[in-house]
Amino acid sequence: MSALIDLDFADPELAGHLADAAADDLDALRFGVIGIDAAGTVTRYNAWESQAAGLSTTRVIGQPLFARVAPCMNTPQVAGLFAEAAARGEPLDRTVPYLLTLRMKPTRVQLRLLDPGRGGLRWVLILRGA
């Protein structure tokens, strides 16, 4: 059983847990997890999000999140917040209500945007049904 399975979407230490997690641990979480590098390329993508979005892991890994995978997130409220935090050299931990519209019926979600600000992965967490 995954060590992460009981982690909550709002856990204040979540970014640290995600950075060290194996793929199976990420797959056990009950919300979507997308890890991107500083260039915005998807490097981590969990099974929950794959199923909810209808996009396979092999189709998503290695692709630019905001240009190819989820251009509906290329907005000031998502991509812009990551860019602003990076420009200031500050960490980011913001939860925003959002409406996903690409490749699916418009779906209200909570997005949690995490950037530890230490050059590691940035995270987009997606909580549906919230």
Describe what this molecule looks like in 3D.
- With 130 residues, the chain is of the alpha+beta class.
- It has helices at residues 14-19, 23-28, 47-53, 57-60, 65-69, 79-88, and strands spanning 32-36, 42-45, 92-100, 107-115, 122-128.
- The chain has a 5-stranded antiparallel sheet with strand order 2-1-5-4-3.
- A hairpin with a 5-residue loop joins strand 1 and strand 2 (42-45).
- It starts with 13 loop residues before the first helix and ends with a strand.
**Strand residue content:** 25-35%
What is the subunit organization of this protein?
single chain
Provide the helix percentage.
Answer: 25-40%
**N-to-C SSE string, H for helix and E for strand:** HHEEHHHHEEE
Low-confidence stretches: none
Shape: globular
- Please give the order of strands in the largest beta sheet: 2-1-5-4-3
- Number of strand segments: 5
Rounded mean pLDDT score: 91
Task: Count helical runs.
Answer: 6
Distance between the first and last residues' Cα: 25 Å
Taking all Cα atoms into account, the compactness measure Rg is: 13 Å
The major sheet is characterized as: 5 strands, antiparallel
Structural class: alpha+beta
